[in-house]
Amino acid sequence: MYITPTPHNEAALGEIAKTVLMPGDPLRAKEIADAFLEDYTCVNTVRNMLAFTGTYMGKKISVMGSGMGMPSIGIYSYELFHHYDVDCIIRVGSAGGISKKVGLRDIVAVMGASTNSNYASQFHLPGTFAPIADFSLLRHAVEIAEAKGLSIQVGNILSSDVFYNDLPEDSFTWEKMGILAVEMEAAALYMNAARAGKKALGLMTISDHLATGEALSSDERQTGFAEMIGLALDTAVTME
Q1: Per-residue exposure over 84-119, b if at least 16 CB sit within 10 Å of its own CB, e if not
Q2: CA–CA dist 199, 110 (Å, integer)
Q3: Domain named Nucleoside phosphorylase: which ranges (predicted)?
Q4: How many domains are there within the chain?
Q5: Could you tell me if residue 27 is inside a domain?
Q6: Where is 225: in which H helix or E strand?
Q7: Are 111 and 95 in contact (CB under 8 A)?
């Protein structure tokens, strides 16, 4: 464990919980704290990457933005795991559907995160690393979702470095390998967790579909995301 605070996080050691939910948008972190956490306090405002710590069902939980893309979540998740002794990070966010197996509002529990990123090169591995979720978290989330009657899909997604792709059709070539959806952060989170010996899981709501052009309205996103956040929190508090 290293010295805190860091250049990116002003929280003191102990102000961040062992379990952290990470949406991409720091303002969504504030919305989650407002809607779900009790007695929360803001523990980080550096670069406006807001972080809050409170309780949910009596358990200490933190929620912190990760920013967009693997370099950003790579920094914040690394510091949480190594500087703040966080044990578990659950990424909560949106994803664009690729496969016909997923539809709008579906929750995807990310079993594996394929990527077009070079993030893994830093580890100097003699082959290709497969970033995967912590199985205990994944299984627990799926069991809770099924008990609650939520529409959940489990599988592989694409963590892409590119949002505006010069060859948009590239996204659909991943479907033939069973890729369900695309987002931009999970692979880096899973790699950092593996390297640190910690736990990570990605839960995504399908907010739009690349094949059909369908997309949720802002109100529909709010409702769908609330179900996903509730699932993430229920998974976090019932793991122990």
Answers
A1: bebbbbbbbbbbbbbbeebebbbbbbbbbbbbebeb
A2: 13
A3: 19-215
A4: 1
A5: yes
A6: helix 218-238
A7: no
The reported pTM is 0.96
- For residue 5, the one-letter residue type is P
Strand pairing report for 88-97 and 181-183: antiparallel
Query: What is the span of the domain harbouring residue 216?
Result: 19-238
Task: List active site positions.
Answer: 208
For the stretch 118-174, pLDDT in tens is 999 999 999 999 999 999 999 999 999 999 999 999 999 999 999 998 887 888 899
Quote the tokens at residue 51.
């972080």
Q: Measured in whole angstroms, how far is the alpha carbon of residue 29 from the centre of its chain?
A: 12
User: Binding site for a purine D-ribonucleoside: residue ranges?
Assistant: 8, 183-185, 207-208
CA atoms 31, 33, 35, 39: torsion sign: negative
H or E element: which one contains 61? strand 59-64
Binding-site residue set: 8, 24, 28, 47, 91-94, 183-185, 207-208
